[in-house]
Amino acid sequence: MSGQNSFEAMQKIRRRVRLCDYLTVAQLYLQDNYLLERELTFDDIKPRLLGHWGTCHGINVAYANLKSFFRDDPDFVFILGPGHGFPALNANLWVDGELEKIDRSATRDANGIAYLCKRFSWPDGFPSHASPMTPGIITEGGELGYALANAYGLALGHPEKTIAVLIGDGELETATALDSLNLRNLLTSEKNGRVLPILHLNGYKISAPSIYARKSERELKELIRGFGFEPVWIRGDKPEHFQAALNEPHEAPFYILETEKGETGPNRHQVAHQIPLKNPKTDKYELEELTEWLKSYDMGELFSRKKGITL
User: Fold this and answer.
1) Which CATH number is associated with domain 9-302?
2) Which of 184, 93, 91, 172 is CA-nearest to residue 136?
């Protein structure tokens, strides 16, 4: 990419992440006033808040960067391990128009945003975890550990495929995920596709520090090397760092995406695994916090009723 085109590409990735972060938060909280076209009130908040925020920004960062880098590859596949971060995946599928292909009501306009947000964690709507009702999903999103094995299974006999798989750091503690790292040494034939594991190192699982986030960088890298991979560290959510890592030549890369748990949201220094603001429907202070959180993404720059998505 030329310098100018590269800058434009980085800005587009940033805008996409902001858009999907906004849509993720809106799905978790809002039952009305989805574009903040008036002051947010208690009535705009869902009566029951159900979902997981902590992993979502990292999912949006990985998805946006991978979609940009592999945009011209029709055989590229993304597999999501932490399926409890479903509102992030749902947002990306909506942005790309994939959701509308199987649900005509999920249009890429203001009505579609209302449909997406209101029906998340709603009776007869979208579930809080990834589920097979969503295009491309084969397992329930709460079943952690299977993503890497599924990636290698998909690669079997398909040398044309490149498969990126995002693995949560808590997920890597499961026996299934950890043992799946051995598949790297079993599936090296040119008759198979290429698998790109990405460990999302955000520090915490449900309510405790993750083991791998508490290892030293040297220790974690040596562990990964022991499975036959080349560790490639991506620090933070800047697209320049992510794109540079993808451009580096490696025979068997294992990417480590290090971001903060719950990044871009409130309560980042607490364990914000699920809902960081629990009472915005009844607590005026939390409602104000939620309003500022949503406004921080500057949705008006990314979407309008007249122009639609402007990335």
Assistant:
1) 3.40.50.970
2) 93
